[in-house]
Amino acid sequence: MAQIFNFSSGPAMLPAEVLKQAQQELRDWNGLGTSVMEVSHRGKEFIQVAEEAEKDFRDLLNVPSNYKVLFCHGGGRGQFAAVPLNILGDKTTADYVDAGYWAASAIKEAKKYCTPNVFDAKVTVDGLRAVKPMREWQLSDNAAYMHYCPNETIDGIAIDETPDFGKDVVVAADFSSTILSRPIDVSRYGVIYAGAQKNIGPAGLTIVIVREDLLAKRISRVRRFWIIPSSTITAPCLTRRRHLPGIYLVWSLNG
């Protein structure tokens, strides 16, 4: 069979070594005589794999100990709602920096839960799309958090600056197409979320890195999605919450 190279934005290609290991474990996982899709997500063998995947992810990104790493169902779009629902607390507004399609999508969803203060960061330089530097971003004084997307794939705009707005500004960022592609100073963010399908594994999984103090925010009327333990929900087949991404993370560490 001829090798086909997939250059689409996602789902992205997985390394051949990762796919080969997943293939071998599809029918007999860990010598248990059963498929990885059939074992209990509460079983000790799978819990061990889940814990190792989280450890490997933390090691790759140097995630500080006061941050939780959550493996959540679904794509990154679900976090467009989860961010305001979990961080707003008693406040009614949040700052959103609009640099392209994905930021605009997050803004549209946020309007269901708060009144976003939208700063249009888009500019044109010599006929090309660009974005204003962070020092020019206009943030409000009463916002619960500030949200932006560092890589607007549809618009062809990347924001490589590291946010430095002071310790009182909670920065939330959509890293779906950026995660694991470069070092990140996690301590500069309150929340980082990323769909797995770009750089980690198959679609159907989103990883959230959230500072622990933000999980204590008071929310009324809605259930806080982030505080539900991952193991209480049956993980979807091949993503198995952390199995295939776990193989990829080991491959990344060894690469």
TrEMBL record:
Alphabetized GO MF terms: O-phospho-L-serine:2-oxoglutarate aminotransferase activity; pyridoxal phosphate binding
UniProt record, GO biological process: L-serine biosynthetic process; pyridoxine biosynthetic process
Aminotransferase class V domain span: 4-217
Enzyme Commission numbers on file: 2.6.1.52
Reaction catalysis annotation: O-phospho-L-serine + 2-oxoglutarate = 3-phosphooxypyruvate + L-glutamate; 4-(phosphooxy)-L-threonine + 2-oxoglutarate = (R)-3-hydroxy-2-oxo-4-phosphooxybutanoate + L-glutamate
Pathway: Amino-acid biosynthesis; L-serine biosynthesis; L-serine from 3-phospho-D-glycerate: step 2/3
Coiled-coil annotated residue ranges, if any: none
Key words, A-Z: Amino-acid biosynthesis, Aminotransferase, Pyridoxal phosphate, Pyridoxine biosynthesis, Serine biosynthesis, Transferase
The keyword Amino-acid biosynthesis is assigned to this record: yes
Gene3D superfamilies for this protein: Type I PLP-dependent aspartate aminotransferase-like (Major domain)
UniProt cross-references to PROSITE patterns, sorted A to Z: AA_TRANSFER_CLASS_5
A cellular component annotation (GO) from this entry: cytoplasm
Cofactors required: pyridoxal 5'-phosphate
Sequence similarity: Belongs to the class-V pyridoxal-phosphate-dependent aminotransferase family. SerC subfamily.
Name of the molecule in the record: Phosphoserine aminotransferase
Upper taxonomic lineage: Bacteria, Pseudomonadati, Pseudomonadota, Gammaproteobacteria, Enterobacterales
